[in-house]
Design brief:
Number of strands: 15
CATH class of the domain at 116-242: Alpha Beta
CATH architecture of the domain at 116-242: 3-Layer(aba) Sandwich
Radius of gyration: 21 Å
Structural class: alpha+beta
Oligomer: single chain
Signal peptide: 1-19
InterPro entries: AmpC-like (IPR050491), Beta-lactam-related (IPR001466), Beta-lactam/transpept-like (IPR012338)
Organism: Pseudictyota dubia
Keywords: Signal
Protein name: Beta-lactamase-related domain-containing protein
C-alpha cells in the first residue's frame, strides 16, 4: 500500500508533508530546533513532479518494503515521491501501519552518506582559526601513541580519502568489541584509535586505498581530541543547525512510527523488520529469538549512523550542489560556512580509476566517489555515494554540479524479498527523464516543513537531550544502556552471519 499520494497542489503538499510545529515535544525541540530560517518565497514556481507512481511500481516489481526519492536543483525541488510500507506486516508483532503514514516527515537512515558530512565537518573546523587542525595534521601530532607506528604520518586528509592504511572494519573478531565497551563515546573513539595503531596496515598508510569505517572513526576522534567536544555535538552545532537540518540524529530511528530497517532471513525466505532498541541502535529480530544490531555501534558514528527527514537531505545536498559556485547559490549563508575554494577541495578526487573493487571509478575524496554519467545535460562527472547499515537500510545519491541537479533514493531494505540486492539504477534513470532541464520547482523552505511529532514517541525523553562534551546525553539511564554492549557480543556475531 502506498504511504503517501502526493498531489502537489501547494497547500495540499504542505498539509501532507507537515505535522505541525506545535506537535513537537519540548524535549525534542531542545535538540532538533535550530535558528529560524528566513523565508525565500518566489512569486511563481513549478510544483514538483510526483515520483510516487513510478516508485510504487518499483517496490512491487522488486519486492521492497518502502522507498522515498527526490530530485532537486540548488534552490528548488524538482520531483519527490514515496511508496511502500514502514515495515513488513508481521501479525502480532508489528502493526500494519494503516492509515498511510507521511513519509516526507519520516526519518531515513543514510548509512555511509554520513561520511561526506564528517568530511564537511572537518573542513568547517579547519576554517576555524581557533582550532589547531589542518588537512595536513598527522595522527602523530594528535595522538602521542601513534608515534613510531606505521600510521604516525597519516594526515587527516588521507583518512578522509580512505588512504590511512586501516582495515575496513573495527570489529573483525569478538575480542575487538572490547574497544567499544564502557566509557563515553569520546573515550571509545580514542580507544578505537589506539587499538588501530597496534594493527597491521591493510595497505601502505598514506598511499594505498581501502574503504575504511575504521579510518573514519579515527578521523572523528582526531576532531574530538583537538576540540574537546564530541563528534555528535560538533556536527550538530557546526553543520546541521546552520543548514537548518533540524531532524538529523544518530542511530536507527527509534520508533515504530518511522521506516524500520529490514534484513533478509534465509530461513524464512523473506524480509524481516528490526525492532529498534535503546538509543535506536540495538534491538531484536522480529521473531525475538536473536538479538542483533540495527546499526553500527554509536562510536562508529562518523563513518555512518546519521538519519534525517527527506527535507534535510535536500538542504544538505543543495549546499554541496551550490558550494563550488562563486556566487554561493541562492543562500548567502552557504558562503559564510565554506568558500567555493574550500568546496572544490572537498569535491576533489584522490587516486585513479579502478583502484578498488568497491569504487572502480575515477577517484574518491572526502566521502564522495567520482562517477561519469550521461544525462539530459550530456556526459560529465558527478559526486556519488551509497549508504547502508547492517544490510538493513539502503541509500544512494548523485550530486551533479555541472547540471545543477541532485538525485536521491532511500529504502528501508537493502535486499528484495527474494534475497537479491536491489539496484536503484532504473529509479535514477526514470527520475532524470522526468526532470526537465529547467527546474523552477518549490523551494524547500516554502513547504514550511515541521517535525513529525511521532518521530521519537517510543524513545525515552532522557535520551532526546543534547549530547554532553563526552558524546553522551545527561542521563545515567542512557549510559547504563551502553554498558549492555558486552552482553550482546555472541548474539551480534550470530546475527552477522544470517545472510550467509
Amino acid at each position: 500500500m502506498k504511504f503517501l499520494q502526493l498531489t502537489f497542489a501547494a497547500a495540499t503538499l504542505t498539509d501532507l508533508c507537515s505535522a505541525g510545529e506545535q506537535g513537537v515535544s519540548t524535549d525534542l525541540k531542545r535538540h532538533i530546533v535550530g535558528s529560524p530560517r528566513p523565508s525565500r518565497r518566489r512569486a511563481s514556481a513549478t510544483l514538483p513532479a510526483d515520483l510516487s507512481p513510478m516508485l510504487d511500481e518499483f517496490v512491487r516489481e522488486n519486492g521492497l518494503v518502502g522507498i522515498a526519492a527526490f530530485a532537486a536543483s540548488s534552490d528548488a525541488i524538482c520531483a519527490v515521491g514515496c511508496a511502500g510500507n514502514l515495515s513488513a506486516t508481521v501479525p502480532g508483532i508489528f502493526p500494519s501501519h494503516s492509515p498511510p503514514v507521511d513519509l516526507w516527515s519520516s526519518p531515513w537512515h543514510g548509512g555511509s552518506l554520513t561520511k561526506s558530512m564528517t568530511a564537511s565537518l572537518a573542513a568547517l573546523l579547519i576554517k576555524d582559526e581557533k582550532i589547531a587542525l589542518e588537512w595536513e595534521t598527522t595522527l602523530g601530532e594528535v595522538f602521542p601513541e601513534a608515534k613510531y607506528t606505521p600510521y604516525e604520518n597519516v594526515t587527516l586528509e588521507q583518512l578522509s580519502n580512505h588512504r590511512g592504511g586501516f582495515r575496513k572494519d573495527v570489529i573483525e573478531k569478538p575480542e575487538d568489541m572490547d574497544q567499544l565497551s564502557g566509557g563515553t563515546l569520546v573515550q571509545q573513539r580514542r580507544g578505537v584509535a589506539l587499538f588501530g595503531f597496534t594493527t597491521d596496515p591493510a595497505v601502505a598508510p598514506g598511499k594505498g586505498f581501502i574503504y575504511s569505517d575504521f579510518g573514519y572513526t579515527i578521523l572523528g576522534s582526531m576532531m574530538e581530541q583537538r576540540t574537546g567536544a564530541a563528534w555528535e555535538n560538533l556536527i550538530t552545532e557546526r553543520l546541521f543547525r546552520p543548514l537548518g537540518m533540524d531532524s538529523a540524529y544518530f542511530g536507527c530511528p527509534d520508533t515504530l512510527h518511522a521506516p524500520t530497517g529490514h534484513f533478509f532471513d534465509k530461513n524464512t525466505g523473506g524480509l524481516l523488520p528490526m525492532h529498534p532498541g535503546p538509543g535506536g541502535w540495538c534491538g531484536c529480530a522480529v521473531n525475538y529469538t536473536e538479538t542483533c544490531f540495527c546499526d553500527i555501534p554509536p562510536a562508529g558514528g562518523p563513518a555512518g549512523n546519521v538519519y534525517m527527514q527527506l527535507g534535510d537531505y535536500i538542504r544538505y545536498y543543495q549546499w554541496h550542489l551550490a558550494g563550488d559556485r562563486e556566487d554561493g547559490g541562492d543562500s548567502a549563508s552557504r558562503r559564510d560556512l565554506l568558500s567555493a575554494e574550500e568546496f572544490r577541495r572537498l569535491h576533489k578526487p584522490s587516486g585513479s580509476a579502478n583502484e578498488s573493487e568497491m569504487f572502480p571509478l575515477s577517484g574518491y575524496g572526502n566521502g564522495w566517489a567520482m562517477r561519469e554519467v550521461t544525462d539530459l545535460f550530456g556526459e560529465h562527472d558527478v559526486l556519488w555515494h551509497t549508504g547502508s547499515s547492517q544490510f538493513m537500510w539502503s541509500a544512494e545519491v548523485y550530486v551533479a554540479p555541472q547540471s545543477d541537479r541532485v538525485l536521491f533514493v532511500a529504502s528501508n531494505s537493502m535486499f528484495s524479498k527474494t534475497g537479491l540486492q536491489v539496484s536503484f539504477d532504473s529509479v535514477f534513470a526514470d527520475m532524470m527523464s522526468s526532470v526537465n532541464k529547467t527546474c523552477d520547482g518549490t523551494m524547500i523552505d516554502d513547504l514550511d516543513k515541521s517535525r513529525d511529532p511521532g518521530m521519537h514517541d517510543e524513545c525515552p525523553t532522557e535520551i532526546l537531550g543534547s549530547f554532553d562534551a563526552e558524546g553522551n546525553t545527561q542521563s545515567d539511564a542512557w549510559k547504563n544502556r551502553l554498558q549492555l554492549l558486552p552482553a550482546l557480543l555472541s548474539s551480534f556475531f550470530a546475527a552477522k552471519y544470517l545472510l550467509q
